[in-house]
Design brief:
Layout lengths: L19 E8 L5 E4 L7 E3 L12 E7 L8 E9 L4 E8 L3 E6 L8 E4 L11 E8 L8 E7 L5 H12 L8 H8 L7 H5 L2 E2 L5 E5 L8 E7 L5 E8 L1 H4 L5 H9 L3 E3 L2 E3 L4 H7 L7 E11 L5 E12 L2 E4 H10 L5 H20 L9 E6 L5 E7 L3 H22 L2 E2 L2 E2 L4 E3 L5 H12 L10 H15 L5 H11 L4 E3 L23 H15 L8 H31 L6 E10 L2 E6 L5 E5 L9 E4 L4 E4 L5 E3 L3 E10 L4 E6 L2 H10 L14
Parallel strand pairs: 11-18, 12-19, 28-33
Antiparallel strand pairs: 1-2, 1-4, 2-3, 4-5, 6-7, 6-9, 7-8, 9-10, 12-13, 13-14, 14-17, 15-16, 17-18, 20-21, 22-23, 24-25, 26-27, 26-32, 27-28, 29-30, 30-31, 32-33
Helix pairs in contact: 1-14, 2-5, 8-9, 10-12
Length: 674
């Protein structure tokens, strides 16, 4: 096998002084490491012999070596503060006395030694998931244990697991966390009920996707004698069950979010908590943290109450069922549903009038067979049933944040995990404004409020027009990324001065933090968490990792689906442009693939014009611009790279035009091959 005498990782002490920094390790494919330190202009280079057990993505402490003499700083990893991931996919090589795990990674990392007692019934050459359990800085090999054997027949399952692991989401919960979860009592004590507002006798229901099992939120409704409506937004009281600093809490914090892939959920909390204890299931008493509003028929909030409650959901609706009630004006609890919908639409209209930006985004949903293979792609639509829930969740999130923002402890604001969205970046905005002008849309950039109004006007003007897709996509790209922080600068996209995440604690850790702090505020027992900003940054990073995992999984499914259509032609829209080609998203399936500039070389040489978001032909003048409709042929579908390759299929007309030294109009229609 040749692995027994493999070279050991060396650990050398650095006696030359130098400064220490905390940052994230980025390992290149060649094996060189660079520690990226926030607020440091240049990365610190680390040679492989100085990694000291650090792996790609780990948070590390690095000490610089020497003076640098104006060149790139070099350093040595002193300590691994936090591993990005501890589980890996690869294959086993088993000998008589021990086994080795060879990881399948695009980033270099050493093989892991696996004692035979830890191979978990795996066989030689099996593809497995292995957990890193020990790696001392003494030059010895890292030690691992087999977590699970991957089914050789089920490549889809292996691909989804790899995507989760790549992004730092472990596949299973540690035993100590499961032990804590198992000890939580299922029953609610009379003492606990007496300590809460009892709203079990008020009409309450949930509205969720048809396949949901973790019901975070419920809505209660009743009409008051004064003609106003009492509407309760009731949120699963996860913080009651998940106590701080327990193994269960620690694993929830490390994950910071549930991850939703096309065929599975990687939950933040064990299933018994997320789907049973905390899930607001119908016909069951449940502990909740609530925001209860008194609202007029014109959707004005007259007063509100925040606190712990006990509820009893009368019914579980799906979005489809509620949408049918809204459209037919008939069905179970129709009067309450229609009234809530009217209030939600009024709140929505007010929100946009006050500066919220009405961006719409297209999401896809896959229809899967029993093996998890995609057999259809559907477009998710945001209908009034979705907006009903959205508006009341936004209301609760806003009022919780506003309530906290007014409070002070010892003259200082209470630290809190706000959800913020900064004003647009001028550098990104100006090229977009110039591009929009080419379509006849003007922008007022004199203030953030004016920019928001201009965006909304543009979105109304382009609705249904050919440039709608491209201007919406480019507009979204000009926006800052929303994140968690203790610095309350408001939420630009929503048009809110104060905002937080409070309504999804089963699947988001910042909501759990918000619940804990709000409860301290209500009990006047606030303790200042000095690490709260660090926790906010961690949650933002994990959110981005989850989004990356979800994008990668969707891309895998798209490639898997389009493999069935190799050689076939589809209409598409150019969704992105670069110097090496342009991306096209098919109209029918929303599957994006790349048309390489190399495939166009026989017709013309194309150059990238950044200001016009296009590729322009040097001789022909032909342009491929974002938002243009084109016909493409599916020529390759690479599942390993999660990549689709397309070819432009109207090329013969460009060839003819080239011969005549002029451009003819592209054909309007193309036949799709059967």
């Amino acid at each position: 096998m040749g692995r027994k005498n493999a070279k050991k990782t060396k650990h050398r002490s650095n006696s030359g002084g130098g400064k220490t920094f905390k940052g994230n390790m980025d390992v290149t494919r060649s094996g060189m490491g660079f520690v990226i330190v926030p607020d440091l202009k240049i990365d610190i280079m680390v040679r492989p012999g100085d990694f000291n057990t650090a792996l790609h993505g780990d948070t590390v402490i690095v000490r610089t070596k020497g003076s640098g003499n104006g060149r790139r700083m070099q350093g040595e990893v002193e300590d691994v503060v936090q591993r990005k991931r501890t589980e890996f996919v690869g294959h086993l090589e088993i000998s008589k006395d021990f086994a080795f795990f060879i990881p399948e990674m695009d980033k270099p990392m050493p093989d892991l030694y696996i004692p035979l007692s830890s191979i978990n019934n795996a066989k030689d050459r099996d593809r497995v998931v292995v957990r890193l359990v020990k790696w001392e800085k003494d030059g010895k090999r890292p030690v691992g244990e087999v977590v699970s054997v991957l089914d050789a027949e089920n490549s889809n399952d292996a691909a989804m697991k790899e995507i989760l692991l790549e992004n730092g989401f472990p596949l299973e919960f540690p035993e100590d966390a499961l032990e804590v979860a198992a000890r939580i009592p299922d029953t609610i004590s009379e003492t606990e009920i007496k300590a809460r507002k009892d709203v079990r006798d008020i009409l309450t229901f949930t509205i969720d996707p048809i396949d949901a099992k973790d019901f975070d939120d419920a809505i209660s409704f009743r009409e008051l004698k004064n003609g106003n409506y009492e509407i309760g937004v009731h949120i699963a009281d996860v913080a009651h069950y998940v106590e701080p600093d327990t193994p269960l809490d620690k694993v929830a914090y490390q994950k910071a979010t549930s991850v939703y892939l096309p065929d599975r959920v990687n939950p933040m909390l064990p299933e018994h908590i997320s789907n049973v204890l905390c899930s607001l299931r119908p016909k069951e008493d449940k502990l909740t943290f609530s925001a209860i509003f008194q609202i007029t028929s014109k959707a004005e909030v007259k007063q509100y109450w925040l606190g712990k409650t006990i509820i009893h959901s009368d019914h579980r609706f799906t979005y489809e069922e509620v949408q049918a009630i809204i459209e037919t004006r008939d069905g179970l609890y129709k009067d309450e549903i229609l009234l809530l919908n009217d209030l939600a639409q009024r709140m929505r209209k007010k929100r946009f009038n006050k500066g919220a930006i009405n961006f719409s985004s297209t999401e896809v949903r896959f229809k899967l067979d029993e093996k998890g293979d995609p057999i259809g792609i559907m477009i998710k639509e945001s209908k009034e049933s979705h907006q009903l829930i959205e508006e009341f969740m936004l209301l609760a999130n806003r009022y919780v944040a506003e309530n906290i923002s007014k409070l002070k402890v010892k003259g200082k604001q209470v630290p809190f995990p706000y959800r913020i969205h900064d004003d647009p970046d001028e550098e990104k905005l100006l090229p977009f404004v110039a591009f929009a002008k080419k379509f006849g849309h003007s922008f007022d950039t004199s203030s953030p409020e004016a920019i928001a109004a201009s965006f909304n006007q543009l979105l109304m003007d382009v609705h249904g027009r050919p440039e709608q897709h491209v201007l919406e996509q480019l507009g979204i790209r000009t926006m800052a990324k929303a994140k968690y922080t203790t610095e309350n600068v408001g939420h630009y996209g929503l048009g809110f001065e104060h905002y937080c995440h409070f309504t999804s604690p089963i699947r988001r850790y910042p909501d759990v933090m918000a619940h804990r702090i709000l409860q301290q505020v209500l009990e006047s027992t606030v303790t200042i968490d000095k690490k709260l900003e660090e926790k906010c940054k961690h949650c933002s990073e994990r959110e981005r990792a989850a989004m990356e995992a979800e994008r990668a999984a969707n891309k895998y499914k798209q490639v898997q689906y389009m493999k069935n259509y190799l050689g076939e032609e589809f209409e598409g829209v150019i969704s992105g442009v670069a110097s090496f080609g342009f991306w096209v998203e098919t109209v029918e399936h929303k599957c994006e693939g790349l048309v390489s500039v190399n495939s166009l070389l026989e017709y013309d040489e194309f150059r990238h014009v950044e200001s016009d978001y296009c590729l322009a032909g040097q001789r022909s003048g032909k342009k491929f611009r974002m938002g243009d409709k084109v016909w493409i042929k599916v020529v390759a579908a690479n599942l390993t790279k999660r990549q689709l390759d397309y070819e432009w299929v109207v090329a013969e007309e460009l060839a003819k035009a080239k011969a005549e030294n002029e451009i003819k109009p592209e054909r309007q229609k193309a036949k799709k091959k059967k």
